[in-house]
């Protein structure tokens, strides 16, 4: 066989294999021509929180307050929420806190503790991730807290500062700045 015949044969085989490989994705075993989502783009619920899916899970919560910082370290989720000047801050804080706790303790199974700080960014030439912030309040909730099983759904409707029961449940600490901004606790 001459060199040209072998070269043409090899090129023909390569072309046939290329065409077959190109056609494989369009072939369906049952002949169906419906095209659905590719598995890579399907939304799957997050069962275990990790550094890899922390950003996705925080964005998925669609919180009212801006997330200034989120960290994941050995089963502890730490989140700093930037407080704005909108009215009804107490209810907004409680609703966002409820969403965070539902993610941590209901939808995932590897979070043991949630630390949330409500911070007020100091405006000095613009807000950046590195700008200092005033801590208005802090919350510390643990997975083994007994009230989580029954009381989590009521959190969004709670006035965090006036309810001594909720301040104790959440281990809520409020700074003097926080009291000045939200009013005194009952």
Description:
The structure is a single chain. This protein is an alpha+beta fold. It is built from 6 helices and 5 strands. Strands 1-2-3-4-5 form a 5-stranded mixed beta sheet. The longest helix has 21 residues, at 3-23. The relative contact order is 0.11. The mean pLDDT is 83.
- What is the percent of helical residues? 25-40%
Q: What does the largest sheet look like?
A: 5 strands, mixed
Radius of gyration: 27 Å
Total strands: the figure is 5
Detail the poorly predicted runs: none
Key descriptive features of the protein:
186 residues; alpha+beta; five-stranded mixed β-sheet; 6 helices; 35% helix
Topology:
Blueprint: H1 3-23, H2 54-61, E1 66-73, E2 76-82, H3 89-107, E3 113-121, E4 133-142, H4 148-151, H5 164-169, E5 173-174, H6 176-182
Parallel strand pairs: 2-3
Antiparallel strand pairs: 1-2, 3-4, 4-5
């Amino acid at each position: 066989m001459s060199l040209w015949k072998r070269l043409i044969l090899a090129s023909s085989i390569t072309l046939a294999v290329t065409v077959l490989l190109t056609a494989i994705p369009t072939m369906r075993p049952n002949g169906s021509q419906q095209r659905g989502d590719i598995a890579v783009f399907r939304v799957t619920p997050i069962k275990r929180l990790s550094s890899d899916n922390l950003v996705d899970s925080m964005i998925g919560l669609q919180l009212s307050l801006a997330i200034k910082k989120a960290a994941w370290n050995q089963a502890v989720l730490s989140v700093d929420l930037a407080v704005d000047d909108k009215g009804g801050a107490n209810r907004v804080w409680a609703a966002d806190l409820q969403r965070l706790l539902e993610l941590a303790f209901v939808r995932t199974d590897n979070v043991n503790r949630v630390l949330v700080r409500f911070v007020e960014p100091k405006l000095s030439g613009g807000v950046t991730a590195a700008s200092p912030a005033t801590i208005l309040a802090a919350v510390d909730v643990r997975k083994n807290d007994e009230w989580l099983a029954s009381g989590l759904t009521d959190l969004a409707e709670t006035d965090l500062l006036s309810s001594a029961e909720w301040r104790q449940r959440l281990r809520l600490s409020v700074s003097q700045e926080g009291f000045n901004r939200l009013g005194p606790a009952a």
